[in-house]
Amino acid sequence: LPAAAPRKPVVPVSARAYRAELGEGYRFLLHHRLLLAIVLMVMVTNGLDQGLSSVLLPVHAERHLGGSVQLGLLTALFGGGALVGALLYGAVGDRFSRRTVFAVSFLVCGLPRFLIAAFVPGVSPLAVTMAASGVAAGMLNPILTTVTYEAVPDELRSRVSGALTAGVWVVMPLGGLAAGCLVEGVGLTAAFLVTGGVYFLATLSPLVFPAWRGMDEGTAADKRTVADERTAADRAAAADERTAADRATATDERTAAPLSSAGPRRPTAAPAEPSRHP
Fold first, then answer.
1. In 3D, which of 137, 147, 134 has the Cα closest to residue 33?
2. Taking burial as the number of CB atoms within 10 A of a residue's CB, which of 10, 19, 33, 206 is the most buried?
3. Per residue in 102-121, pLDDT tens?
4. Is 179:55 a contact under the CB 8 Å cutoff?
5. Alpha carbon of 82 to those of 49, 105, 215, 230: distances in Å?
6. pTM of the model
7. Overall average pLDDT of the 21-30 stretch
8. What is the CATH number of the domain that holds 111?
């Protein structure tokens, strides 16, 4: 198999070549409107999620929910929901618009967590919210991965993927710091509201900016390709049927009884009646 064939050893890459290739990935990213919009949005939401998971939820669990066991339960429910969401999208996701699923999923997994934690006491309401948010969040990465593979040429995939990953993670170290400063400065409830409000504004991006329409271009192209393949298959099947019919007709003509070369004979006259003798 070609995939199992031994590969030649990779030549070490110099620092200059590495910088050139990395710059090529960033240039492609900066000139691709959809991928750039994805990086900017996910960069913001990743930073806010980091603040929620590393500061806001632990402080909330310690002060109002009972402690580390409740925090572990909330985290487990979110993770389990994410697994269910990924499996669910893999099963039925191709039936819906990617942009719609992406936007709705981000709206579900974003602001509700902050609002419930800020205003609704007790573990149960927040536990249900975290589970539902996890299901919605689990649908995001399959969509993002699919869009990236469709948009990036094969020869640039590793460079652009590196630029994408760096872009969406760059703010995460600051998320926890900002959340801690908010809790100390304005209090836990206000920190939930401020963080959730910024999260909500970020999740409106797919519904507002036209660049996000490109999410469904790959789906439309796939549908056209499938339709073209079906049309070609139907034409090929019809051609095969006509060829088979022509062959059958030719075979029948060869096996039929041959006609006389002289053509059909005329009927001969009936023999004359014998003469009667007296």
1. 147
2. 206
3. 999 999 999 999 999 999 99
4. yes
5. 14, 11, 21, 36
6. 0.73
7. 89
8. 1.20.1250.20
